[in-house]
Amino acid sequence: MDPQVLLLVAGGALLVLAVRRWLAGRWLRKVRGPPSPGWLLGHSKEFELNVGDLESEYVAKYGAVYKKMAPLGEHLLHVADPKALQYMLHKSGYHFQKSVVSRTVSGEITGPGILVAQNQDHSRQRKIMNPAFTAAQLRSFLPIFRSSAQKLSQKWQDILQNEPGSSKKINVLATLTRCTLDIIGEVGFDVQFGAMDEKLNPVMEAYKDMFADSIAFPSTFTVLFQRLWYYIPTPILKYVKYMPGKDHARFRRTLKIINEYSKKLIDEKTEAVLAGNEKKKDIMSILVKANSAESQKERLTDEEMIAQMATFLLAGHETTASSMSWLLWELSRHTEYQSKMREEIKAVRARVAARGDQDFSVSDLDSMTYCLAAQKEVLRLHPIAYMTERQAGRDDVLPLAYPITLSDGEVVNELPIPKGTTLRVSNWAYNRLPQIWGPDANEFNPMRFIEQEKMGATYVGVTSNLMTFSAGLQACIGWRFSIIEMQALLVELIEKFEFSIPEDKPEIIRFAGGLMTPLVASEMHLGSQMPLQVSLVQ
Ligand code: HEM
């Protein structure tokens, strides 16, 4: 073909593409949001001391769907609207995938596991993992949850020298993190990590403050470089993990330790299953068994199996420990509610003793209305995974429960978005929407879960209409695990101890370090902590 004609055809095609892209994005351009500080970095360097402060301000000003700017002039849609979330996460199947950045970073931390998988690959992995997370299976772990909780409470009783009325300031997050690591070790892999016994533990050392060390405060280079990931084909993006830089080095080091540890364990379990003598009921053993029953085509590869183990370690302990520490903090600020819970536990304890049992069953825990309500309320107010990212896989239209006003004054109850749009699922903002939770949405009020039967017309989330564990096909697989684990811990701790705010009233901030972790404002350099005054119950 004549080179001039070729040039003309190519130019025409590019023009058509540009016009199509411009037309597809015309609605998005009209969505309101805070003014961008600049084209190069957008809002990526916007700083908030406390997670959610700006998010709440923007949602109040612009609505449950608003826009921020990503680097290089790209739009970022923040979504807290229930109908839009239900559509994105439930109804549209896999059309809204985890974003390129979240999958690439998860891949660096865990390998090619469920946090990274997409489409059929994700559904294949999830199907094999599901048998380990059924309600019956997780309820059977209660005795392990309880004995770990009792071990934790013994540690604190020792610190308080078993003297009724004695009281000390304790960083509750530190012991809770060790406790939940021991739990995931035993329940997840049938391994005793001994973290509560202060044993040197390679797994604990590998994960310690990993997010705060690597993800918090990204450099300008990282921010810009990550934006370019959206234009790099996936097979090339895999090599990002070999880049220099403190975050990549930290991820490589962590994954190497976890992989070596996991491989040995999985090999032992696989051998036992193949020999037909695997009776263990830990999550990994169930997973190995479920995997060996699958066809060769569907089966998880060795690399994927190892990645699931890294995923459970990563997702399965700090999450619950942080949530528990927020729970004890709120109860320290609301001691009258804490007393109500103690009374409730006492009454159920009497019932358990009367029937001749040693400890609470799952139904006993489920009958503790005040305790359950406090747990739900804290999961609502303090969703430690406060934001997740998705990317539109096709041109789409988001339905809205709460209409928004565009920059030209038009009010719309649906929003067309072009393929490739990055959307931020705002678990934080959804959990605090006054339209759903009422005018006291920002207050700690567990009674809302007792007095109100149903909140909001459109239900999202996996439990109690909360977005804390996300929703739909890629929602947290471990939500029930966490809920039972927290119940077991909470009941033990409230039965034995009273919690209050220490006399020096440390200012606790919600730090955005991958997860929302508590930090003391005057001691940020010490990393995550939650100091509370702990006393033995009189
Ligand atoms: C309070 C505790 C927890 C919270 C708040 C939490 C929250 C979440 C959230 C929001 C997601 C969705 C992430 C996304 O969409 O990008 C998620 C996914 C996941 N969580 Fe949790 N999680 C918790 C505990 C656990 C536990 C205990 C386990 C395992 C034992 C676990 C395993 C997972 C896994 C495997 C996924 C990926 C699911 C998939 O992609 O299909 N989580 N979690």
TrEMBL record:
Its cofactor is heme. Keywords: Heme, Iron, Metal-binding, Monooxygenase, Oxidoreductase. InterPro entries: Cyt_P450, Cyt_P450_E_grp-I, Cyt_P450_sf, Cytochrome_P450_Monoox. Heme binds at C476. GO terms for molecular function: heme binding; iron ion binding; monooxygenase activity; oxidoreductase activity, acting on paired donors, with incorporation or reduction of molecular oxygen. Pfam families: p450 (PF00067). SUPFAM superfamilies: Cytochrome P450. Gene3D superfamilies: Cytochrome P450. Belongs to the cytochrome P450 family. This is PAH-inducible cytochrome P450 monooxygenase PC-PAH 1. It comes from Lentinus brumalis.
